[in-house]
Amino acid sequence: MQDYTGSYALGGGVAAAGAVATAISGPVLGRLADTLGQRRVLLPLLVVFVLAGFGFLFSVREGWPLWIVFATGALAGACIPPVGSMIRVRWTHLLRGTPRLPTALAMESVVDEFVFIVGPVLVTFLSTTGHTTSGVVTAFGLAVVGSLAFAAQARTEPPAHGHASRQGPSAMRTAGLRVLFVVGLAVGTILGTLEIALVAFADEVGAKSYSGLLIAALAIGSMVSGIGWGTVHFTAPVRLRLLVVLPVFVVLSLPLLLVDDLWVMIPFVVLAGVAVSPSLISAFTLAEVLVPRVAVTEAFTWIGTALAIGVALGASVAGQVVDEAGANRAFLVATVAAAVAGVVVAAFQRLLVVPAEHAGTPSLAR
């Protein structure tokens, strides 16, 4: 956008429009997938996604009116395939009630966070080293290819729930899911904040070319903890695990406010990343059992929506703090987000109690 229009603000505005559209459409698409089946929703959605994506790129390149640019950008955002939520539902369908389900959900959370952390860096790299549209085109292409490959796996698709899903209440009517939405929002804010603040920190200490190393340190910490978390068989209730990991991040993020050396910062970033994945894994694990079975896709999509909103919110707020007070202070945005989520989880523990029919599942405890 900046290359064709000369305006960063305009690019940010279109990105915001796409994010809002994604947030609005995500739960709707999840509900449709629960009702009609995943492939019947995903394939038509991909067609609109591709057309909207081409329309957006063409309208920017040809200098069409801004309302067309915003409309096509928002439509593309609204039609982003919710593959992440659908994959989790398939794992739930295949492994429900077994100790292997948390491991599968853990791996999905690790992949999600890896994409949220590395994806923007890759797109920026491609856009700045090649053609200005190469980053966006690559992102669109990967989304389409991945979605088609996923849709081809018909044998693992869970059955549609038909009108039982459509006529029932929204998954968000489940009070516990609203608590988990806050957790997803906090985790997204943490990721969005760290991505901006780490790059700004590297720039401030005169090592901007090493910003990718800091991002990699965050990804390593998060991935290692996510994999480890999914392989451990806990005895404590999952709601208490969630209650613990959020304050742990608060504590581990405090050194980021004080460090002023790149090489000292790296191990502290790894440690901070350790507490991120377990929060998201616990949220998805709880969502699967708190909502009615016919609304699981919608529930997962709500958390994914919260995650996306949080990333945008964290990046925006952290960017402003960097401009006003420097990179170290910007890390405080992530600390506050985790603290607020921790307070909410502590205050509403009773809403996260696993229903009686799932209480005997080893992976959930009580």
UniProtKB/TrEMBL annotation:
Question: Which sequence ranges form a coiled-coil region, renumbered to this chain?
Answer: none
Q: Which InterPro entries match?
A: MFS, MFS_dom, MFS_trans_sf
Which keywords fit this entry according to its UniProt record? Answer: Membrane, Transmembrane, Transmembrane helix
Task: Name all Major facilitator superfamily (MFS) profile domain ranges.
Answer: 172-366
Its transmembrane ranges are: 6-29, 41-60, 66-89, 134-154, 175-201, 213-232, 239-258, 264-287, 299-318, 330-348
Tagged with keyword Cell wall biogenesis/degradation: no
For this entry, the protein name equals Unannotated protein
